[in-house]
Request: fold
Amino acid sequence: MSRFLFVVPPLVGHTMPTVAVGAELADRGHQVAWAAHPEAVAPLLPPGMKLIPVASDIDGQTPAQLQQRWQGLPRVAAFRFLWKDFLLPLATSMVPGVAAAVDEFRPDVVIADQQALAGALVARQRGLTWATSASTSSELTDQFTTMPILGEWIHQLQANFQRGFGVADPVDLRFSDHLVLVFTTEALVGSLAALPGHYVFVGPSIGTRTGATPFPWEWLDPDRQHIVASLGTVNTEAGGRFFAATVEAVAPLADRLQAILVAPPDLIGEVPDHVLVREFVPLLGLLPHLDAVICHGGHNTICEALAHAVPLVVAPIRDQQPVVAGQVVDAGVGARVHFGRVGPTELRNAITGVHLGLTQDIASVSEMVATSVNDAAQRVTRTLAEKGEHITLALGRAGDNMIDALGERGGDLLEQMTRTSEEVSRTLETASDKMTSNIDVKSDHLSAQIADLTVKLAQMLSSRLDHVTDNVSQKTLAIAETLMRRTDEISTNLTRTTEQLTDQLQSRTQEMTETMLETGNRLAETIATRADDVNNTLKATGESLVLDLTLRGGDVALLFADELQIVRPLSFADLATFVRR
Reply:
């Protein structure tokens, strides 16, 4: 049997697709392990699975602290932060742990997530066969068409990262040249003709989840429709305004709809009776009961909803989510709203619109998702056959076992999913017919005019929006780079100016201190001299007054003399004694 080592980042959405694959491999007798951050990944693994820990410190911060900084950034800044301040430092911190895991576990194959670059790097250094776990469809599209400088920047970052570890021939570590497991469907990505043959589309990886998330199932009213609104595991705290708009949007629909918001209760506040707030929900268990899902564009949630023929309302926030949201709209299985600006009315129209208008398209996509498992088995077979003996020795046994699992168990799964899809399609079709019969259809002529005007308006708006988006994106990047450059210049000038001012202040302070000391001494001398002069003057004046009083005020002097009982000229001392008496 073979040994498989999964290397994943501390992100739930990137770890979950590997869990079901790893569990299936373990059931088939293979040895499986994960090299990852234990605090983030351990709760997601089935009991008994081997986890080899990597360092949780990333440049002095934890992954959770970095994610907190990441949340408040606008789109372009968030993208730059994702790569420069998160993915590359994460990869650097994980390399020692992944290397130790390879030494300890001695895997035949390394399966590295696209955002766990350390796994691909170590596999190449050790000469190991490695596969890519592509947990999102956005990486398979040319998402940098309007901003090619960002694509070039990412390639340069990866090259510098690899050269820092002694790799002389850098490659794009997001894509293995042996096998790329893509957990999505052609319905979202589009034609696969341009992709290499070793890209294998296996559909969503939906397995048994660890633990049992409690849920009040009795709250669900079978006579009403049900929706779930979730922003994933990373973006919930940023969703206060969006959740408030959702509550207001569904407020008038209490007679026919129940809404479940996946968020901390203290973030939402009070809600009406037909709205339920739960911090965690068993989404896979809820999907068969749902009529729509509102989400941020997380790829796992998108694929899980489509696998259950549930339409979507997508409000992308950052990173690759706008790309996935565009794929949902292009596939005709959902609507897109603006996370930061959508109001209750627009959101209510989107919720009711996707359920009424997308039944047929979603059933088609759901069937494509279900059949992708069989297609994947055939593509894996062709890929392994073309790669030859070298890859067959390292990957062959594991690949064949995966094919056997897909062949033996996939048939039952395919049959079950197809049957479920058909039942859901029939149910949705019946519901659609009933609701359609209640709609007052206007004249054909007016409908045709409205439809024609709507198409023209949509085309015009799409063209203008694309043009504006291109210009804004290019200008935003240029402004960001200019601001960063000017900030550095200003910081340097301020530092230089501050040092100069400090020197001048110190010099002037010394001069002022010496001047004040000198002035103080002169003032003290002047005061002392003037005091002697004043004292002498007062003494002379007093004696003169006494003499004058003595000579000219005889009567008064005699009076005072009698009163004081003295026989001598009246002095100041005598006068003072008299006054006191």
